[in-house]
Design the sequence.
């Protein structure tokens, strides 16, 4: 079975631009998570979806960051007015339920010039 | 709040030698504990996890970890390193027991010398 997939694998953008990062979870997984991994750091929690709703968005750094999961499957992380400090690897994970093991995708490396 | 400390950002071992990667956590309540491995350009892969029960946990690829409540530790070991073990290893805890928010350490990059 397919694992978690993320597109694009790499994204280079200019400061101030808008970007969208996509996550396709494991089929049937109701829980979906976004993490951000900065250089030399471990992943940091951003947001958790249960089904279509964002159950916990406490990790989003500011209101430039937004994520959706309209049909309870694919999720999109949206970043407005990107800043150089947003450069990082954005990881998506999914799990069967909120207390089950999280399976991670390969990540999207975002570079803001 | 929970926190995770991984001692040693880089560890080098010879092929065939013991691998020991250290992880300590801070929590007043024993959390769920995890070790993930990350190979270059790949996602995090779960090696093993501790939830309840036996404190010595065996994982994939010959790795194991022991939960020691008195030391608030969850060190990862493997008796004999293989070249293919070279990767970055992350220890993580769940923010609250059994819940979804994982707190990760900063990672340990393992280098295996021929």
Sequence:
């Amino acid at each position: 079975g397919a694992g978690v997939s993320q597109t694009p694998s790499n994204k280079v953008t200019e400061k101030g631009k808008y970007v969208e990062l996509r996550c396709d979870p494991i089929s049937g997984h109701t829980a979906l998570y976004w993490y951000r991994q900065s250089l030399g750091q471990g992943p940091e929690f951003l947001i958790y979806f249960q089904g279509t709703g964002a159950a916990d968005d406490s990790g989003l750094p500011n209101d430039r960051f937004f994520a959706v999961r309209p049909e309870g499957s694919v999720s999109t992380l949206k970043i407005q007015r990107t800043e150089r400090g947003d450069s990082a690897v954005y990881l998506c994970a999914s799990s069967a339920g909120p207390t089950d093991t999280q399976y991670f995708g390969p990540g999207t490396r975002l570079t803001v010039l | 709040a929970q926190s995770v400390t991984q001692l040693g950002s880089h560890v080098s071992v010879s092929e065939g030698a013991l691998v020991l990667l250290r992880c300590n956590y801070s929590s007043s309540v024993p959390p769920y504990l995890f070790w993930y491995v990350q190979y270059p350009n790949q996602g995090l892969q779960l090696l093993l996890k501790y939830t309840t029960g036996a404190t010595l946990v065996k994982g994939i690829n010959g790795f194991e970890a022991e939960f020691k409540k008195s030391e608030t530790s969850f060190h990862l070991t493997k008796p004999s390193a293989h070249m293919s073990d070279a990767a970055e290893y992350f220890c993580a805890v769940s923010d609250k027991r059994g819940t979804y928010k994982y707190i990760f350490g900063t990672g340990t990059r393992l280098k295996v010398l021929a």
